[in-house]
Design a protein that fits this description.
Elements (H helix, E strand, L loop, with lengths): L1 H5 L4 H10 L8 H16 L9 H27 L1 H8 L4 H29 L1 H21 L5 H11 L1 H17 L4 H29 L4 H21 L13 H8 L1 H24 L4 H24 L12 H31 L4 H7 L1 H17 L5 H20 L10 H27 L5 H30 L6 H43 L13
Helix pairs in contact: 2-3, 4-6, 4-9, 4-10, 4-11, 6-7, 6-8, 6-9, 6-13, 6-20, 7-8, 7-9, 7-11, 9-20, 10-11, 10-16, 10-17, 10-19, 13-14, 13-20, 15-18, 15-19, 15-20, 15-21, 17-19, 18-19, 18-21, 19-20, 20-21
Subcellular location: Membrane
GO molecular function, one term: transmembrane transporter activity
Protein name: Major facilitator superfamily (MFS) profile domain-containing protein
Length: 541
């Protein structure tokens, strides 16, 4: 355990060294060559993070965590001043307003998978710096869109989301590649997850503050901060080993990047998401909405065919996706779909129905950051001591209970009743499900596939948020009776929240099945007489 926590070679690695060198033949050149090869192999298993001074390691982890926190800043900063931005462009339709959020989450969730593969091929650090730089440029454009129209702002939000799509998987991949499996790695992953709620609150608070002057400064100041992170990160972040070091021909590059699979996959995700989110604006009466949805499913079918039958280096390592991993990803999808609806509509509830200013509403969401940090640290201790299925079950329970609390809260009720309690409960869903899922997948795949492992979890998280907002917007517009009165508006909000409760409830059901499956496997091992205690701590258990 101590070896794992220090980042040095594990006891298994030391046993390997002893077993490979029972004798030493100083006179044999072949023996010396074999010894060098073995020592090289042992060295490759060591943790890069273990070689860093403590101060350097803290700064390094902090910069990597910026990939997570700034992603949520991009979400929170627009949520807080959504109606201010809408008023600037003359937008009032709930479907059009939700696009300002969904457009960002759409590209975050859509391009993550391909960005993870780019990191596997070209280097995680290089792609992370590119991601922060891209994020900075389009954040600046989002602010400058005040001089144009909402079309440019929406496009800026779309391209802004590509930045965190590049940062998230490559940041997580750097952690996965530089830390050896063990409690230290589990805690680092938990800290990474802990920055998410804090980032969302930070973005909302600064948006509320800059709104007192002029809202575009929300995006301009964020752009400056991202540029500084990119510069500092280029010096502080160590270089993990790249999968490929040799130059590639165009044919080899296309095969290694799986560009055909990436093209069909990204197109499918965009078309399906666009159809559901646009249906909340123009309804399903428009033919192009149906056409986009059908084409999206066709491209999705083509993607799976290419990945399973054609691609030599598929974007998704299906051999690593056991039923246990599939259970985890399904639970994460349900939980974060619920979260996307919860966070969008709670801001509308505070500002539209309770009359809170953006800064006041941001203050009401501050408990999310505090309890989120507590939940992440707790999860860091629980992982490795509890079955991951238990962690996911607790997380889905928190998502469900938190949404029930706000969905049933009266408008005139004091904040310190159900609203406050729900902001305390919800982060336990966020910051227990995300670290558990990322750690399980990181340990399930080889080091050269760390980018893909991180991509899968982040794709599920962010795409689920965007897609769920499309579903919720459609429900909202169909049940709010036109939204002419506060009562009708509340009816639409609750319709969306009830849908979120159903989704998270289904995820809770899946997590219970996952939990029961682990105990059933243990029971069968004991019956067969060859079971041991490994099932207690396995990913499936």
């Amino acid at each position: 355990m101590a070896d794992e926590e220090s980042g040095m070679s594990t006891p298994q690695d030391q046993n390997y060294q002893v077993q490979q060198h029972p004798t030493r033949d100083d006179d044999s050149g072949e023996g010396r060559d074999r010894e060098k090869a073995d020592l090289s192999k042992i060295e490759s298993t060591k943790s890069i993070a273990g070689t860093l001074p403590l101060g350097h390691e803290i700064l390094f982890v902090g910069l990597i965590c910026c990939a997570q926190s700034t992603t949520q800043v991009g979400l929170g900063q627009c949520l807080a001043i959504l109606h201010v931005i809408g008023d600037t462009y003359g937008l009032s339709n709930p479907g059009e307003l939700s696009w300002l959020i969904a457009a960002y989450s759409l590209t975050v969730g859509t391009f993550i998978l391909l960005a993870g593969r780019l990191g596997d091929v070209y280097g995680y650090k290089k792609m992370l710096i590119i991601g922060f730089s891209w994020f900075s440029v389009w954040s600046m454009v989002a602010g400058l869109a005040v001089y144009s129209n909402h079309v440019l702002f929406n496009f800026a939000r779309v391209f802004q989301g590509v930045g965190p799509a590049i940062c998230l998987p490559n940041g997580l991949a750097i952690l996965g590649a530089t830390y050896a499996p063990g409690p230290r790695k589990a805690m680092v992953f938990a800290i990474f997850g802990a920055t998410a709620p804090g980032g969302a609150v930070l973005g909302a608070v600064f948006a509320g503050l800059f709104n007192l002057a002029w809202w575009p400064w929300t995006f301009w100041s964020f752009s400056i901060a991202l540029a500084c992170i990119a510069v500092v990160g280029s010096y502080v972040i160590p270089d993990p080993p790249k999968k490929l070091a040799k130059a590639m021909t165009w044919r080899e590059m296309i095969a290694e990047l799986d560009l055909l699979g990436g093209l069909t996959g990204v197109t499918a995700l965009i078309l399906i998401n666009f159809a559901w989110n646009q249906s909340g604006v123009v309804t399903w009466a428009k033919a192009y909405v149906y056409v986009c949805l059908i084409l999206g499913f066709l491209f999705a079918a083509a993607f799976f065919f290419i990945e399973l039958r054609v691609a030599t280096s598929p974007l998704i390592p299906f051999d690593a996706l056991s039923t246990d991993v599939a259970f985890v990803l399904a639970c994460v999808a349900c939980g974060w779909s619920c979260f996307g609806i919860w966070i969008y509509y709670i801001w509308q509830f505070y500002e539209q129905l309770r009359g809170a200013s953006p800064l006041h509403a941001a203050a009401w969401t501050v408990p999310v950051a505090i309890t989120g940090a507590m939940a992440s640290v707790t999860t860091g201790f629980l992982l490795g001591r509890l079955r991951p299925a238990w962690v996911m079950t607790i997380a889905l329970t928190a998502f469900t209970v938190g949404t029930i609390l706000i969905a049933t809260a009266p408008v005139s009720q004091t904040y310190w009743a159900q609203s406050f309690v729900c902001t305390v409960v919800i982060p336990w869903g966020m910051d227990m499900s995300f670290p558990a899922a990322t750690l399980i997948l990181s340990d399930a795949v080889a080091k050269e596939h760390q980018g893909i492992a991180a991509s899968l979890v982040n794709t599920i998280v962010n795409y689920s948020i965007s897609l769920a907002l499309g579903f919720a917007g459609t429900i909202d517009s169909h049940v709010n009776r036109g939204g002419g009165t506060p009562e009708d508006v509340l009816l639409g909000f609750r319709g969306a929240w009830y849908f979120a409760i159903g989704v998270s409830g289904f995820g809770l059901f899946l997590s219970l099945l996952f939990l029961g499956k682990g105990y059933w496997k243990d029971r069968n091992r004991r019956k067969q007489g060859n079971g041991d205690d490994d099932g207690q701590d396995s990913p499936g258990g």
